[in-house]
Design brief:
- Helix content is 30%, strand content 23%.
- The protein has six helices and 14 strands.
- The protein starts with a strand and ends in a 10-residue tail after the last helix.
C-alpha cells in the first residue's frame, strides 16, 4: 500500500538527514490526517517540502494540534530537465481544472492559465485572485495524490496573443496543439531535441499550448508562429480541452524518457 503524502513548510526539512530527525505537520494537515484519514501513532507516512525533498516516516505523536513524524530517510529528487509546462486555456465546466489535475499526475512541472480569445470563461479583475487560488489548490491536491515531492509551479495568467511571448525565449520550445497541423507532436519533438543537441541552443523548457472549446484563433496562431512556436497535431481524433493537454504530456514523457523514475540523492 502506498503511504499518504503530507507537505510540510518549505525549509522544514532543510539540514535534516533522515533517521532520528522529527518534523511537525501543521494544524490543518494534522486534522486531516487524524480526523479524516484516521491515522494514528505507528502509521507510516510520506512527507515532502514541495521543492523535491521528502521521504518516509512514522507518526509518533498525534495528541497535540501539530502531529509529529519521526523520519526514517530523506531523499532529494532533482528537477527534471527540460521542464515541461502546460499552457491551458480557460474552459467551461471546470474542464481546464480537470486538464491541470491530470497533467500534474502525469508529471507536468508548471502550469500557465491562458485566457484565449475564444475562451468562454473570462478572467474578471475582481475574481482573478479567486481563480488563481482555485488553480493552486488543484495543483497541490493532484501533486499530493500522485505522491510528488515537488509541487508544480503556477505561473501568472496570460491573455490572448500575449501567449506568443512565451516563444521568444531561445531555450524554450513552444508547441501548439491544433487539429489542422501537419507535424505530429512526437516526431517533431524528437527532431527538435536532436537539432538542439547538435546545433544548440539547449532546450531547458518545453511548453505545450492547449486552446479552449472553440479552438485557437487565427490571430493567436499567427502570433505564436511568428514568435517561433511550432504547430503540432496529436493524432487523428479531436480531443476535448480537458484531454488534449494530458495527452500531449504523455507523448512528451514517452519521447523524453520521463516515465522512468529520476535518480534520487540522499
Amino acid at each position: 500500500m502506498t503511504h499518504q503524502l503530507f507537505y510540510v513548510a518549505p525549509g522544514a526539512l532543510e539540514g535534516l538527514t533522515g533517521r532520528g530527525d522529527q518534523v511537525e505537520l501543521d494544524a490543518a494537515t494534522t486534522r486531516h490526517a487524524v480526523k479524516s484519514l484516521r491515522l494514528a501513532p505507528g502509521d507510516r507516512v510520506l512527507v515532502a517540502d514541495g521543492t523535491g525533498t521528502g521521504g518516509v516516516g512514522e507518526l509518533v505523536d498525534t495528541s497535540g494540534p501539530c502531529a509529529v513524524v519521526g523520519l526514517e530517510e530523506l531523499t532529494h529528487q532533482p528537477a527534471p530537465a527540460p521542464r515541461l509546462v502546460l499552457v491551458q486555456a480557460l474552459a467551461k465546466a471546470d474542464r481546464d481544472l480537470l486538464a491541470v489535475a491530470t497533467a500534474v499526475e502525469l508529471g507536468v512541472d508548471a502550469v500557465i492559465p491562458w485566457q484565449a480569445e475564444r475562451s468562454i470563461v473570462r478572467l474578471k479583475a475582481d475574481k482573478t485572485a479567486k481563480t488563481v487560488t482555485k488553480w493552486q489548490s488543484q495543483l497541490l491536491t493532484a501533486a499530493q495524490q500522485s505522491r510528488r515531492y515537488r509541487i508544480p509551479e503556477l505561473r501568472d495568467p496570460v491573455s490572448g496573443t500575449a501567449v506568443a511571448e512565451l516563444a521568444q525565449h531561445r531555450n524554450r520550445l513552444v508547441l501548439v496543439t491544433h487539429q489542422d497541423a501537419t507535424e505530429h507532436l512526437g516526431e517533431m519533438l524528437t527532431d527538435a531535441m536532436q537539432q538542439a543537441h547538435h546545433d544548440g541552443p539547449a532546450i531547458s523548457e518545453i511548453a505545450i499550448v492547449v486552446g479552449p472549446e472553440g479552438g485557437i484563433s487565427q490571430a493567436e496562431i499567427t502570433a505564436l508562429q511568428d514568435a517561433g512556436a511550432r504547430i503540432v497535431v496529436l493524432g487523428t481524433h479531436i480531443l476535448r480541452a480537458s484531454t488534449a493537454g494530458p495527452a500531449a504530456v504523455a507523448v512528451i514523457n514517452e519521447r523524453l524518457g520521463r516515465w522512468y523514475p529520476p535518480q534520487a540523492t540522499g
